[in-house]
Design a protein that fits this description.
heterotrimer; A alpha+beta (about 210); B mainly alpha (about 80); C mainly alpha (about 160); A: about 210 residues; alpha+beta; Aminopeptidase; 9-stranded mixed beta sheet; 4 helices; 9 strands; about 25% strand; C: about 160 residues; mainly alpha; 434 Repressor (Amino-terminal Domain); 9 helices; elongated
């Protein structure tokens, strides 16, 4: 059974060194406040610059309008969970997952339960389209590993599902090895691809590592 | 500038405390449970916990004024699921 | 021997380098796609391929660069690039309208081709398939490409 808060590492992209990080299986009001005070203004600055330079909207960071304040689960909810990842005193990533939103569609696991990743985002300064090099790498992997652990804890054997924003398709398909089931005609106006991880794919991602 | 509380860094990792209960099931109920375990590739405990999550999720949305329907696309029919 | 958390972190960080990490449809309606492209799918020609090929060939027929076409039509350069790359997800009705007007073809039919409107004419899919099969992406139009394009334009008709 996973324990939280959990000690993790992030990688400082500038120095290529690991730095201590912590993952929490709850988003506190103070995390939302930090998102409002630190993430949002940074993202707003980026969008203003893109607008001023005449960059078309479809090339902007595709999560620039996200509002995490409305995505904190009720404390008593069993069926959804949110994670916050912190490093060197600052918020670096958020993730919101559900145990009941989606059943698997891959033929070999059709109808079985999975942890569905509703939303996942890394802080603006960690996004390669905004800052080069990004401040920290590994935020996404640490959060995805947490989703896999939850899937294992809940008896879903590591099965995951998610709808990727187009800018992130290659990460899920090529780097993590998720199965691409193509554009989903039934959700999100058919504009997002749906990906799944089997128990084998998730096991490969975790690679037998003992997470504290 | 408001940052997270200092105490977060000092928190020790905690596995949630658990309580145990015994559940008596009829043969029919046990068969139904075992069939779900087989179909969902889950243990009995995992199936029952997932059932609890689903029940809570449905109840919370009903409490919010939403309704639950089954939809048959072929027959173009919708049937409301009445929860007691 | 199992990988340590530190080694895993360094390895996964290399995999994640340069990658965007986002999932979720914030801001998108969680509902079905508004336009069905099943007619095209049944015919075996993805609408994005046909639309991309059409725009690309029309541009080259007129001897225009991507920038020149965008300028002539009053649309974004990025839109022309994305259309020709078959990335239609963010292409809006105004862009298609401007292209149809400049190319002097039916706005309605080009909207259907771009996936912004329900396909009304089942023969459009067949025409699109034939056109896509006969055209390719060479820099200058071959005689066959020119013939295929002229035939497809005739099928699209004027506004």
């Amino acid at each position: 059974m996973s324990c939280y808060p959990g000690r993790r590492y992030l990688v400082d992209s500038g120095t290529q060194t690991v730095v201590d990080a912590e993952i929490f299986d709850v988003i506190q009001p103070s995390d939302i406040e930090e998102w409002r005070l630190m993430w949002k203004p940074e993202m707003d600055r980026v969008i203003q610059t893109l607008q001023a330079n005449g960059i078309p909207q479809h090339l902007w960071p595709q999560s620039h309008h996200w509002d995490w304040a409305g995505k904190v689960p009720a404390t008593t909810a069993l069926y959804e969970k949110a994670y916050a990842l912190r490093c060197e005193g600052s918020l670096q990533g958020f993730m919101h997952v559900s145990s009941v939103s989606q059943q698997c569609r891959l033929p070999e696991q059709q109808g079985k339960h999975c942890i569905y990743v509703d939303f996942i985002e890394t802080a603006p300064w960690n996004q390669p389209s905004i800052r080069q090099p990004p401040k920290y790498s590994l935020v996404g992997s640490v959060l995805m590993a947490a989703a896999i652990h939850q899937s294992l804890d809940e008896g879903f054997k590591g099965r995951l599902g998610l709808h990727s924003l187009p800018q992130a398709d290659t990460w899920y398909a090529d780097r993590l090895g998720f199965v691409d089931l193509g554009l989903d005609p039934d959700r999100y106006q058919g504009r997002l691809k749906y990906f799944e991880a089997t128990p084998e794919i998730s096991a490969k991602i975790l690679n037998g590592v003992k997470f504290p | 500038m408001l940052l997270s509380s200092v105490s977060e860094a000092e928190k020790e990792p905690v596995a949630q405390t658990k309580k145990t209960m015994t559940l008596n099931l009829t043969d029919t109920e046990m068969e139904a449970l075992e069939a779900l375990c087989e179909r969902k590739d889950m243990s009995k405990t995992a199936v029952l916990k997932q059932a609890l999550r689903l029940y809570q999720a449905v109840e919370m949305r009903l409490a919010g004024g939403e309704k639950l329907f089954f939809e048959d696309e072929d027959k173009r029919s919708k049937a409301e699921v009445v929860m007691l | 021997m199992n990988e340590s958390l530190k080694d895993w972190s360094l390895r996964m960080a290399r995999l994640e380098l340069g990658q965007e990490v986002r999932a979720g449809g914030f801001g998108l309606n969680d509902g079905p796609a508004p336009v069905s492209s099943s007619t095209f799918s049944e015919a075996g020609a993805e609408p994005s391929v046909v639309f991309a090929r059409f725009v690309s060939l029309m541009r080259r027929k007129h001897g225009l660069s991507v920038e020149e076409l965008a300028d002539a039509c009053g649309i974004e350069v990025a839109d022309v690039i994305n259309i020709e790359d078959e990335q239609l997800i963010a292409i809006g009705p105004r862009t298609v309208y401007q292209l149809a007007t400049w190319f002097e073809v039916s706005v309605t039919k080009l909207m259907q081709l771009a996936g912004l409107r329900q396909v009304e004419d089942p023969t459009l899919a067949q025409q699109g398939l034939r056109f896509a099969a006969r055209s390719n992406s060479m820099a200058s139009l071959t005689k066959e490409e020119r013939e295929a394009l002229d035939e497809f334009v005739a099928g699209l008709g004027k506004q």
